[in-house]
Amino acid sequence: MANHKSALKRSRQSQVRRLRNKANKSTMKTAIKAVQAAIDENAPDKASEALKAAIPVIDGMASKGTLHKNTASRKVSRLTKRVNALASAKA
Questions:
Q1: How many C-alpha atoms does 15 have within 13 Å on its Cβ side?
Q2: I need a surface site. Which of 6, 12, 53, 74 has the fewest CB within 10 A?
């Protein structure tokens, strides 16, 4: 356990940031699961709408530093690829 005043403050800050990041990641995972569920249902319109809602959430995690920007980009790319494949398969 920290003993110095500055170390105690850093400990408090770390805990607050950890909880904030955890909540943000949970929100992101929920948005991604909504896209995946729509893909599993073979519903291209629903998947497209879910993707449009998920992309800003994922990009927001990258801008806040919760995710690395390349990780966020990879997640968006993979989801987009799956949604586009579903849409082209239905056409």
A1: 6
A2: 6
